[in-house]
Structures are given as C-alpha cells and as structure tokens.
Amino acid sequence: MKIRQVISIIASKLTIFLLHLLKRGGTTLPGKVAFKLYPDILKSIASNFEIIMVTGTNGKTTTTRIVEEILKNNNVDYITNKSGANLLSGITTLFIQAVSISGKPKHKVALIESDEAAFNQVTKHLTPKAVIVTNFFRDQLDRYGELYSTLNAVKSGLERIGDNTALILNADDSMCASLGIATAKPVIYYGINQQAYQATSENMNSDAMFCIQCKNKYEYSNRIYGHLGGFYCTNCGYKRPDAHLECIEIQEAGSSYSTIKCKCSSTLLQENNEFVTRINLPGLYNIYNAMAAAACGLALGYKVETISNALQSFESGFGRMESINVMDKTIKLILVKNPTGFNQVLSFLALENQSLNTAFLINDNLADGTDISWLWDVDFEQLNNVSDKIDGLITSGVRGEDMAVRLKYSGLDTSKIRIIKDYHMLIEEGLKKTPPGGCFYILPTYTAMLDIRSILKKKFNLKEFWK
Ligand SMILES: [Zn+2]
C-alpha cells in the first residue's frame, strides 16, 4: 500500500466531506487536492475498474445515460459522472468517492463522460475497455481549424491507450469514422442507412466538407444532417465505412419518440440480426445517440433484449429536454449550445403538431460562450416554413435584444416577436399564450438554463423536476 496514495485519498475524501458540510457542491476541488498530493492517484485507483468512456461534440450526455440504462438492465454495479464533471478533476473526484481509503474499488464498472477537449489528458490516466465517439461538430466559438485540432486531440488520446480498447464510432461522420483507419483496435461502426433517411433540404451547414485524407470535396450518396451521411471521396476513395449496427428503417417519428428497425452484422450478433425498438426521445440526433449506446452494449457482450429494453425504458428526464406540468399545460426546457444542436431543436419544433409558443434565452457568460455570433449560423429561416403555426416568440437573457434582431433578419413576422427580460413575466406570458393541453418551449443557453430552472423550481415548488 502506497502511503502517498492513502494520504491523497484521505485528504480528498475529507475535502468532499467538508464541502458537503458547508452545503457546497463541487466536484473539482477534491480531485485537484488528490492530484496535488499524488499525481498518479487516478491511474492507480482507476486501474481496477472496467471503464467505458463517451466523448465527442454532441450527444455525450444522452449517450452516456442510455449506456447507463443498459448497465442497469444487466444489473451491473457501476459508477458514473454527471455531465458537469467531465473534466480531469471531476472524473478524479468520482473515482475517489468510489474507492476505500486503501484504494480498493467499491464498484465494478465506471461509465465516464469525458469532455472531448479533455479526452487526451484523461486517457493518460484511464485505460478504457470501450470508447464511444459520438461526432465532431463545430462548437459555437470554434474556427474550422479548431475542429480538426479537437479531432487530433481525441486521436492522440486513443493512440495512448492499448489495442484492447474497442472503438465505437459514428460511420456517418467522416471525421469520427477516420479514427477507425489504421488502428489495431477493434472498431465497431454505427450509423443510419440511406434507406432509412434521406434529407430533402439542401440546407446543410457543413463542418467537414473536404476529405480528411486528401482535401478533395466530399460527395454524398445521402445526407442525414450537418455533415453526416453517406460521404465519399472521388479522389482517394475514402468513404463511409459499412456500419456494424445500422438503423435501416425509421418506422415512426413522433414528437417525443422514434420507433426504429436496426440491423446488426454477425460480428455483433449471431442470430436474428434485426430488431425493432423504440426510443423515448425525438429526432435523428437521438437515434444516433441510441445507436452509439446500443453498439457499445453489443460490443461489451450484453444481450440484444436487454439493450432493446434499455432503449425503451430510457426516460429523457436527464437528457436535454425537461418537462414540467403546470395545470393542464406543459413547459419544456431544451438546452441550446451550438448551431447544429439548435437546428435540430428547431426542426423538431417545426414537426410539432400544435401552435408554436417559444422563448429563446440567450446569455453570453463564459459557460455559454462570450461570442454570440454563432446565432447567425443557426437556421432560424426554417421557421418561415411553419410561420402560420407560430403564435409567439419571446427573446430574453443577457443578449435577448440580439436574439430578437437575429429573428427579425430571418424574415419572421416581427409582430410576433417580443423581448421580455424578466423571467417571471416571461413564464407568465408564455403560459398565458399556451392553449390547454399545449406546450410552452423554453430554449436557453447554459447559464440561462440554470437561472430559469431555479425560478421554475421555486415558482412551482418542485424538488428536482428534471429527474
Ligand atoms: Zn480523399
């Protein structure tokens, strides 16, 4: 038993205890304390866990929660971090809590969501059994070059770990799929088949237009959204790899669920290689999240029934859509943080079979991104296709005025756009306009979400409505 390790664990556990006593949350400090006292702490205590990691730009949290549901359905004893603690120190704190003072693990599996920028650093300490990479999209502040540096950082992180780690990669994302080239690790690709979906709109903001191998412009046999789809390069031949797990049919796409038919290759499943399942989440992006989690579950050897059950029993509560019922109306909160995610939310709203009553809460604090020019990359213009359904659009937050300007320039009827800075008044107005049985959508950036959540909690006397 290493003395430094024991001291580091005790000090860190004591910090957790003190923070708890002071009623202060905080997942960063205990991890930092542990590292300060013993730089090898994480590597040392994590080595006895079976580790599953999830990284990528969009969908990390939802994918992680669906994998968690798969673990639950298999009665696996696991630990997992919350999305707010997906950097090195937060992950260290999680492991400290999950071991005894001598460093003995109290659980079998660790399911870790890792920020994509921190992934390279985290893999210096962790050796996962499987890694899911969801996708690479340009975040609000990134320049195009930064997207490739994120990809390269994840790539070096993967090179650092041994060849026994299974890679679960998105076949439809040319950047994500490229991680499976020239690696000795087992690779499982998942994707949406072109028979299942063909985007009709040509309105694709493409983050990765050029071949990662030779810089030639990609052609597409089908588009899903963003740069996802059946990409191929006519110059060097790099193309979307065949997927081991594919969505081959979207049988139903409701406003809160999808029913999909999946096909598995024989490497993942020996017999009966098609199954139909339901996901209690709307939208194409959640089909990807579900496929990623399912591919990981299959790669780890869990039975297809348990995976299908997990997809069907998964509740979006912790995901990015949160609902609260107020009398006979519903308020739905959906986080928006980058153009691609925002576009998906808008397409989802446009499909809603009811009048649209929506508030946009835009802050520009550090956690939201201080440069709000990304709003100009969001396709608000698509709302013009459903303009007759739009009842009212409210803008708010620190940059509520800028948001109103953005909506105005998208050509929407300005008489329907209002700026209401006071959140109490905003909630009241939004609900007043919502018909019985209807839904008031609130789309906040990160810090605006924290503010509106705490007001909703107090106002309607809720404990934790997002659980
Ligand atoms: Zn090429």
From TrEMBL:
Belongs to the MurCDEF family. MurT subfamily. This is Lipid II isoglutaminyl synthase (glutamine-hydrolyzing) subunit MurT. Keywords: ATP-binding, Cell shape, Cell wall biogenesis/degradation, Ligase, Metal-binding, Nucleotide-binding, Peptidoglycan synthesis, Zinc. Its EC number is 6.3.5.13. It is an enzyme of class 6 (ligase). The active site is at residue 371. InterPro entries: Lipid_II_synth_MurT, Mur-like_cat_sf, Mur_ligase_cen, MurT_C. Forms a heterodimer with GatD.
